[in-house]
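dumping this here before i forget
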Amino acid sequence: MIDRKGWSKVKFGDVVRLSKDRSSDPIANGYDRYIGLDHIEPEDLRIRRWGNVADGVTFTSVFKPGQVLFGKRRAYQRKVAVADFAGVCSGDIYVLESKDPQKFLPELLPFICQTETFFQHAVGTSAGSLSPRTNWTSLADFEFALPPLEEQRRISYMLQSIETVNEALDDATIRADSLLRALSRKEFSKEACEGELLASHYTVVSGQVDPKAERYADLPLIAPNHIKSNSGQILNIESASDQLAISGKYLFGEGAVLYSKIRPNLVKAAIAPCTGLCSADMYALLPKDSLRGEYLLEILLSDTFTQFAISGSMRTGIPKLNREHLSQYQCRVPSLTSQDDFLVLVRAIRSSINEIITRRKKSNELKSMVLLEV
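structure:
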């Protein structure tokens, strides 16, 4: 627990300054990078992407290292970041800084902007239906409890330590993802995949059933929105009756490989953990004895297959991979022993990624606990 003795209630605008520095000619003033709202990731204080001023930009708001960037448009997206370089940014971003570092530590400012009460205030004072924006006058009226300087240092140190751990975990995730993609590219490159038709190693479930029928109503119903992109993971499982399903569905057994035929660029595929139903927007593939289900899943998740699927899904409306194009995909299907050797490596990497994700979640929970006390 954080000791609140000596804390005083202040208004945000009493301790925080809205920077009004502008540059009408960023290149001449030495600014070569710009930040738009799309460059700031929700709940991520690091700026990982930016644009080049030389490519053309109309932004004039100047930010400097250490200042806090807060997205005033659609504040519910929770976009807050700390600048580690100088540049110009969108007018939909407020550039904030502490008025007096001896009263309010600059290091604590971004975390105050990440508190639930601050976001609720920003969202609650936003105006506009399509693109709601909060204004500085409203933000300046936000009240919060300000600890004594020494307590600010202690809280800031805790939060920065958690943030350092999060950054290390994020970097580890990026490296693990890169390793997995490199392994996949090597295994499923165009050169490696020239060979036989993949369709000769699986069958496609056909013949729809009525999800309203008593024998099917309580079975899990998997649709594209239940699968996490690029991961092979099913996010949640709901029964057909819970989803009020009425149209025909495909019945599959445990171990079937499910692939979303719509918007193949989203790369949604997973292995069924149990018997269930899938929507008409999914293919339920049943591997033959020559093909491991996991290996088929990795093929479907690969960049090579995704490029193939996208190339055959051009149509008006929603892109969709039809069955005829799917059946034309060629690849090399190695022996089961070779498939198993590859899957050992894949499982190790995916296990590491899942462990990192779990640790990141716990770290975020700890950060949230500290923020709730601020």
